[in-house]
Amino acid sequence: MKPLYLLSAVLACAGAPAFAQDLNLGGAAGAAPVPIQITASQGITWSQDAQTVTANGDAKAVRGDVTVTADELVAHYVKKPGTGGQPAASGSATSASPLDQGNAELTELDAIGHVHIYTATDNAWGDHAVYSVGQQVLVLTGRHLKLTTSQDIVTARDSIEYYAADHKAIARGDALIVAKGGRSIAADVITGYFESQPGGNAQAQNAAQDEGGLSQSGHLKRVEALGHVVIKTTTDTATGDRGVYLPPTGEARLGGNVHIIHGQNELAGSDALVNMKTGIATLLAGPGGQVSGVILPGSGNAK
Question: Which residues contact 177 (CB under 8 A, 6 or more apart)?
């Protein structure tokens, strides 16, 4: 599974999806399996019948560069062929589970209570997280869902989801992406699609950081927003029923009952083009329709 930029998905953005693509417990595609280390303050229970390892109290799971902390962690595994699921011989009398010895394959990790998933650059919070290794899906639910990257902050009411195989991340319920500089996209549901761009020279990375914002946060290539869409720049607010944002160009298109507010000026139409980089918004009339609006003299130029 490729690294997770949760919506930047995540987002990415993701991961997600900003959907932070670094929040990946599955490891890189084609790479050798990375052991998962689990610790807890109250104890670790290994159930061979249920094939679970449960950690309670300040539980922590570490796999590669990704760390998961929660009140409780439950790792589900299956026995690897030929191992019998028993720990390999070792000089330590404190081996907790087959996960420590590499005799098992992780299939799912559940994090319950005060969940925090993080790397050196990305963070995600929620009350409950489920990571399915086979499906390559991470789902965060609960109150105060939040994901942060170096460029963006993503929040949602219902869930933040990352689908590695589909290269997308989804924020559901009062979804909001806030970028540096105050630019933002809000909607009932926001879906971010990204492409992996490993490596890259430092000059290109620094240039991306200098421009900042949604269009430069990782490798997000397309954002789709549905339901009560609100796009804000430093000067304008544009609303509509649906919208598509293209980070490479910084352009967004809104459709369905579109309104653009610039100061005390307000325009209405069927579609609108909004440039997130320049802040310029252009209202478009639908077939057989027209653009209407109210412009107050001296209140600023309507775009």
Answer: 7, 8, 11, 18, 152, 153, 154, 171, 184, 185, 186, 190, 214, 223
pLDDT in tens, 171-194: 999 999 988 777 889 999 999 887
Domain 150-303, what fold? Answer: lipopolysaccharide transport protein A fold (2.60.450)
pTM as predicted: 0.74
- Nearest 5°: phi and psi at 89? -65, 140
Contact, 3 vs 31, CB < 8 A? no
Identity of the residue numbered 260: I
CB-CB contact of 212 with 180 (8 Å) = yes
Contact 192, 19 (CB under 8 A): yes
Q: How far apart, in whole angstroms, are the C-alpha atoms of residue 8 and residue 151?
A: 7
Helices assigned H by DSSP within the chain: 98-101, 202-211
State whether residue 211 is helix, strand or coil.
helix
Spatial neighbors of 137 by CB under 8 A, at least 6 apart, are: 130, 131, 161, 162, 163, 164
pLDDT digits (tens, 9 = 90+) for 132-178: 988 888 999 999 999 888 778 899 999 999 888 888 889 999 999 98
Phi, psi of 215 (to 5 degrees): -75, -15
Beta strands in the chain (DSSP E): 37-39, 43-47, 52-63, 66-79, 104-118, 123-132, 137-141, 145-148, 152-156, 159-163, 168-179, 184-194, 220-232, 236-246, 251-262, 265-275, 281-284, 292-294
